[in-house]
Design brief:
The protein is an alpha+beta fold. The chain has one domain: Cyclic Phosphodiesterase, Chain: A, CATH 3.90.1140.10. It is built from 4 helices and 9 strands; from the N terminus they run βαββαββαβαβββ. It has a 5-stranded antiparallel sheet with strand order 2-6-5-4-7. A hairpin with a 2-residue loop joins β4 and β5. The two termini are 29 Å apart. The model has no long low-confidence stretch (mean pLDDT 95).
Length: 181
């Protein structure tokens, strides 16, 4: 089962603002796929293919994480791996990044037996590039939005998610939710 640990964005105001940014980026004419509203999240750890028999152990390990709820302030649009070679467009975390990084570290520690540590950069993916058409226009759009104000969201839980890949995009479902307290 393909799975990952995520901090799911639930704030509707921030989702509305991201939808506006997605529409602006689509105007570039580049071949893009917007991340669906219900799929907006920060990936804390990608686990990949995990045997269903391991899910109980993963849940138990994650239940031991004890961190306080927190707010994140999102600002600016950027890209991975670089502005000259865009595969992913994201919004950045400018306030509260240390909180999400602490959660990432706690998840990495709890799940050390289930995979290798990953380099982490606090971001929320909003678009994926699906082709090379009008990439120059996309670069201009991303650069123009690099200081764009997005908003603040409160997080009081994180999730273990299952991902099923379909021709129209991934379908995510919660395997477990873990409260921050």
């Amino acid at each position: 089962m393909r799975s990952f640990v995520a901090l799911e964005l639930k704030d509707e105001g921030v989702k509305d603002r991201i939808a506006q940014l997605q529409r602006q980026l689509l105007k570039s004419g580049a071949t893009l796929k917007a991340v669906e509203r219900q799929n907006l999240h920060i990936t804390l750890k990608f686990l990949g293919e995990v045997p269903e028999t391991a899910v109980g152990e993963i849940e138990a390990a994650l239940r031991g994480i004890r961190l306080e709820p927190f707010s994140l302030h999102f600002k600016g649009v950027g890209s991975f791996p670089s502005i000259s070679r865009i595969n992913v467009v994201w919004v950045g975390v400018v306030e509260g990044a240390e909180k999400v990084e602490a959660l990432h570290e706690a998840v990495e520690g709890a799940l050390a037996p289930f995979g290798h540590p990953e380099r982490f950069h606090s971001h929320l993916t909003i678009m994926r590039v699906k082709g090379g058409r009008k990439v120059g226009e996309l670069v201009k759009s991303v650069m123009a939005l690099s200081q764009e104000e997005i908003g603040t969201a409160f997080f009081e839980s994180f999730q273990l998610k299952k991902s099923v890949l379909t021709p129209s995009g991934p379908v995510y479902s919660d395997l477990a939710t873990f409260p921050l307290r």
